[in-house]
Design goal:
Number of strands of chain A: 12
CATH topology of the largest domain in chain A: Rossmann fold
Radius of gyration of chain A: 26 Å
Structural class of chain A: alpha/beta
Strand order of the largest sheet of chain A: 2-1-3-4-5-11
Number of helices of chain A: 13
CATH superfamily of the largest domain in chain A: Response regulator
Number of domains of chain A: 3
Order of helices and strands of chain A: HHHHEHEHEHEEHEHEHEHEHEHEE
Largest sheet of chain A: 6 strands, parallel
Oligomer: homodimer
Strand content of chain A: 15-25%
Shape of chain A: elongated
CATH class of the largest domain in chain A: Alpha Beta
Distance between the termini of chain A: 57 Å
CATH architecture of the largest domain in chain A: 3-Layer(aba) Sandwich
Chain lengths: 353, 353
Amino acid sequence: MEQTMNLEEVAKRAKVSAATVSRVLNNASVVKGSTRARVMKAIEELRYHPNLHARSLAGGKSRTIGMIVSNMENPFFFDIYKTVELDAHARRFEVVVANTDYRSEQLVASIRLMIGRRVAGLAVVVSEMEPALIEELTGSDIPVVFYDVGAPRHNITNIRVNYRRGVEKVVDYLHSLGHRRLGFIGHHSILGPINERMKTVLDAVAANPALEVRAAADADTLEGGRQAMRALLGSGEAPTAVICVNDVMAVGALRELREHGIQAPRDISVTGFDNIKLSEFCYPALTTVHIPRDRIGHLICDRLIPGSDRPEWNGDEIVIDPEFMVRDSTGPARQVQHAHRSVSPRLSRSWPG
Amino acid sequence: MEQTMNLEEVAKRAKVSAATVSRVLNNASVVKGSTRARVMKAIEELRYHPNLHARSLAGGKSRTIGMIVSNMENPFFFDIYKTVELDAHARRFEVVVANTDYRSEQLVASIRLMIGRRVAGLAVVVSEMEPALIEELTGSDIPVVFYDVGAPRHNITNIRVNYRRGVEKVVDYLHSLGHRRLGFIGHHSILGPINERMKTVLDAVAANPALEVRAAADADTLEGGRQAMRALLGSGEAPTAVICVNDVMAVGALRELREHGIQAPRDISVTGFDNIKLSEFCYPALTTVHIPRDRIGHLICDRLIPGSDRPEWNGDEIVIDPEFMVRDSTGPARQVQHAHRSVSPRLSRSWPG
DNA sequence: TTGAAAGCGGTACCAG
DNA sequence: CTGGTACCGCTTTCAA
């Protein structure tokens, strides 16, 4: 009925002052039992819900932390978010997320939004970068944690993964299996100027003169991975092993292989990255590199929410070493054969299309 | 540097009043060009970001809509969210989400949170229900859209899927393929008192005396689907077809079959529900029921954001008819054979474990 | 076209 | 233990 139900109305009904109502709401100081009861009753009856905007305005604090990610659709990001939310809730904080879809304009917009909301802390877990970002953050005293981008600075700390080490493990493994012609599938953001990940792969390959690599990029989705694999298959000599920038794209890639009647790992090996749950459930299960999203989530919360700095944070940067996971999507390179290139699509499928 | 950068500071620097700064910020009324320029400059230099809390407090409005879902991890919910966000952004609204993890206590907490934030509209896309909900919502004049639960009421409208019809199509199809012993895999929330979905399956089966069904429930995740399938396989006579409450659990179920060396659809047929992207990318591709998440998302936005009621909303309730999608995970029931029950785990796997 | 001032709904400090 | 009151930062009349 009343779209404007406020402290005062409650106070009036409970025959106390607004200040007292505020007190019972924050169960602060000692409010007499009977008084508290009256207030509670009034709150119930009026279905009063405190205005959070007014609260954080008056209090100056926000009890919510912000999180910006590139693509919530990818479980990698979601898993981190999930952990952050769990930790935050345990400390009675809320977390509000924003997607950038790998667009740096969106990144800036999201940063602005978060600053506007006066979040108590901000986690930026994105692949793209925008120079104007630090500019934007300057002057706001919001504690920030960056994942995988940005440099430490006042009030901003960094978590990064030793992506290079992870890729090296993958490349070395494939090499040991006899693979020489490699493919790389990334998402569009790798087309950016200095893409760490792309470069890492190229470097790892360059370190071994026997190897060659061809890359394809598409959206960071199942469909994108599929398209990228299609591109790799459609031009030049097909690689015997394909390294995917993450598990989602790898699963997409696997499907495209299936459509062509190409079997993994018999005909082509495929690797993922991240070790999301899906990588165990797809077929064949993915050889991948584990990145501990839960640890990352915990680190973020520990850093952003006051009153619980765990010891792991000693400096302004933490580097995480990824772990290689061998599963079923990789195998020895087939010797002399390009046979799979001539198999017509769906030839090997025996079930109805 | 200043953690307290406000209108007044900007006004001071630009040598105008706070009111004027507010005007340029909202590009309202006619501010003289030169004045506007001065203000803009001051804003830039001071890196001023308006306090959104103060803004919605003073303005009384919020320009953000809330969305509550059961499980963002499940692409079904995510897809809806994505569409809502897209539409919202197009109308310069923000959307903030909350997860309930199928816990009705969380549902209530989330509703409270959203009311506290004075969202401009609220979408409740959850499977669980909580009687206290309507109570909670009463008196708040926030427009609400429910998906799949709740009854129309003042300011609250409904979107529902004719789940029954969808299940009937699945059951009929399986029946026509010769299946008689059915399995049903649902998530834990189906254990609730009157679960529509579970009941629907039982009804559909009851309608055909030749059919029998056994159910198993677990978490709404890949792992949950796997466990549920394990349970189904581990007790009594194995079903020849398993209906899963959604695609995610179906994919989990498929994996468990693989571990047992049971092939789908040769040995057991499996169906999903929702038709998420993954259902095309898993192996075998899932026979499922399509639920148009994008349409649901559009409907939600049209209803919640003022100034764009599309014609589709004629009453307080919209019912969506799902569409049956046959793919590769279903096939004819094998005649006389329980052979797969005796196949030892992984027997048929030829790749390394 | 611009400024002054009254809220918006709370919080928190100061008296009592 | 409780009430009064000065803000918090912005929007919005009302005058000038």
